[in-house]
Amino acid sequence: MKPFPSVALLAVSALFWRSGAFLHQTMTIRRSLSSLPPAASVDQDVADWLDTVAQKLRLQVYDLDTGVYGLESKDPDYGIEVIRTFLHISDEDDSLGLELTEVAHGRSDHRGLVLVSAILEEEVAKNKPIHVGDTIVGVFVGENFKESTTDMDYDDTVDVLSRAKEYAKSVGGSTISLELNRLVKRATIHVLVEDETGHDAVKFDAKAGDNLRSLLMHHHASLYGNGKAALHRLDQPTLTNDCGGEGICGTCLVKINEGMSHLNAIGPQEYSILQGRPESWRASCKTVVGADNEEGSTLRIRLHPWIPSEADARLQM
């Protein structure tokens, strides 16, 4: 499997707890994956940061029937950054170069929150985007070994990593791939909304990871318009109402005049909506602002891009 250099910021979403799945914080216990003997306690600065992360994270149920869990931030000023990377393995050294600390655990169900508490090998710290406070949520080797570790306690996490390493060796591999979640401060994004006259209609600040359509609706921007500004639905061409942000009608289109590089990549559903449209257009219901989490970036958009602007009209004269 190739290493994953990409990152993405996840917006804060609603929480649904599964009965019995609560985690409670424990005294920080240092349990090492390295070949070095564990020290008596974690460095105080590291312990404070691990405590902060543990306090701000909570477990979310994505699918109750299948037991699929994910992490989200309790604090709306923070979000979850998804990191994909890899670690080298060798026959000579059992260490993966990481130290893990269990900071919370389930009462009786082997669930837990395990964080990276130290980077023990310089190569890992220098070449791989792994930080103290990260939590490993997925372990992969090729296409045949894929395991989620989102809600596992220390022992089960170590077991998955050990099995991944042994599997990689058995198939002649030299790396195991990891997906990590990282608690990050959400950057502030400046959003300027223009109408078809080219004048600023709305200005507001947003947090990285926010959905653009939700922002425009919250700040009362005339996203859909009426009369000549109304756009017919792609799925029901005789209608001009919207689908409520489900990504099927194509009526919430906007033009990005500035800041396209700070948005999320276009996915398959949005791509189908945008076929035949200018490259500067986006479907606001599928657009995430500040996907790169760059503080102070600016997003300038234009509403109703299918209506010629006054500037366009002057150019055609």
From TrEMBL:
Q: Could you cite one Gene Ontology molecular function of this protein?
A: iron-sulfur cluster binding
Q: What is this protein called?
A: Ferredoxin
Q: Which domain of life is it from?
A: Eukaryota
Leader peptide range in chain numbering? 1-21
Question: What UniProt keywords are attached to this protein's entry?
Answer: Signal
InterPro entries documented for this protein: 2Fe-2S_ferredoxin-type
Signal recorded as keyword: yes
> Per the database record, which ranges form the 2Fe-2S ferredoxin-type domain?
237-288
Offer one Pfam family short name for this entry.
Answer: Fer2
